[in-house]
Amino acid sequence: MFHKILVAIDQSPLGEIIFGKALGIAKALEAELMILHVLSADEAGSPQMPVSATGLRSSLTMEAAVFDVYQKQWQEYEEQGLGFLRSHVQIATDAGVKTEFTQTPGYPGRVICELAQNWQADLIVVGRRGTSSLNELFLGSVSNYVLHHAPCEILTVHAPKA
Questions:
Q1: Are 36 and 112 in contact, with CB atoms under 8 Å apart?
Q2: Strands 153-158 and 123-128, bridge-based pairing
Q3: The pTM of the whole model exceeds 0.90
């Protein structure tokens, strides 16, 4: 059935639910698990590139200082992501599941599909937050992108209703 399961998670409560589902399936089927975290400016808690408040008169020194702060925040975000992934690998390993992880920047849908192809995943487990159709039309949806571009089967975990 499924031998290689790719689970894409972020640091949200839904990410924990998605991980739990993927881990349960991997354990039951004795499958390998790949945990993916995509570094994205769209993820809650990710650093945002500051917009200059000084307009046309901004000094290059000030802009460089602002960018340095942003770079430090991004590095902290990356380090938090790695710690998050390592803790989930430990949970999966303790459950007896062979587990790897990767973290990469990019557009989540595209990164998920490319990794699934390269790692030869049999199943992708992703979440769906349940944004409105209008939001999906203008902002896009990671789960919708994966649904239309994935090279394998997909399990979509819906966010609990509030």
A1: yes
A2: parallel
A3: no
Check: CB of residue 89 under 8 Å from CB of residue 32.
no
The burial class, CB within 10 Å (0-12 / 13-18 / 19+), for 113 is buried
For Cα atoms 50, 136, 13, give the angle at the middle one, nearest 5 degrees.
70
Q: Are 15 and 9 in contact (CB under 8 A)?
A: yes
Place of tokens 């571009």: 149
Residue 80 binned pLDDT confidence (cut-offs 50, 70, 90):
very high
Instruction: State the average pLDDT for the chain.
Output: 88
The single residue listed with the structure tokens 């945990």 is 35
CA 26 – CA 125 distance, rounded (Å): 11
Helices 142-149 & 108-119 angle (0-180, nearest 10) = 40
The answer on pLDDT for 50 being more than 90 is: no
Confidence of residue 16 (pLDDT cuts 50, 70, 90): very high
Looking at residue 54, its pLDDT comes to 56
Helices (H), the chain: 13-29, 60-94, 108-119, 133-139, 142-149
